[in-house]
Amino acid sequence: MTPLTGRTALITGSTQGLGLAAARVFSESGCRIITNGLVDGRVVGADLRDPAAIESMLKAAGPVDIVVNNAVVRHTSPIEDFAPEKWNEALAVNLSAAFHTIRLTLPGMKQRGWGRIINVSSIYGQRGAANRVGYVTTKTALIGLTRAIALEVVNTGVTCNAVCPGTVDVPMHQGTSLAGKQPTGRLIPTDDVAALMVFLCGPSSNDINGSIFPIDAGWSVS
Length: 222
Prior knowledge:
The protein is α/β, with parallel strands linked by helices. It has helices at residues 17-28, 51-61, 84-112, 133-152, 190-201, and strands spanning 8-11, 32-35, 42-43, 66-69, 115-120, 158-165, 212-215.
């Protein structure tokens, strides 16, 4: 038996990159997978900018035991040039989608007496960066959301935690300079981040709640 056999995991933003790696690693750990656009597992599409679409997705998905809020958009611009529609999109996809997904899945988790919520924040949820106001703001807010939900689920069998990756090994980051970032000078493997998520859902994680986990090779303390 793999550690999560019989559990159902919803992983948003999982058609590529970290989300795709998480879907694979959770599947290898025994989970049934619900995601957007992934051919392996149960596929449920939704525009995460639209709360009604999120609700329809979750109704179609059925009971969910594990939620990984990984969906993200990135826009880079100084704030004076940051288009309002890009700001609204960042809030909707990076933050509000997580709120709605938790809001809609948590009652069932509480009723069943078990659930795991993982919010994918970032190194930029813990420190600032120029020209990334939408990304920094929403990733910081996900940490606050994690702490607030964690206090609401005490003694319910549900936990809520956040992971904060540094620069991960995905195509968009390959070949870019890591100067001033990971002290190791290496990209963070996506499978390592996914393995941390699986651990937070495993049998040794019952008392891990409201925690924020950097996985950045020391960037956040350098």
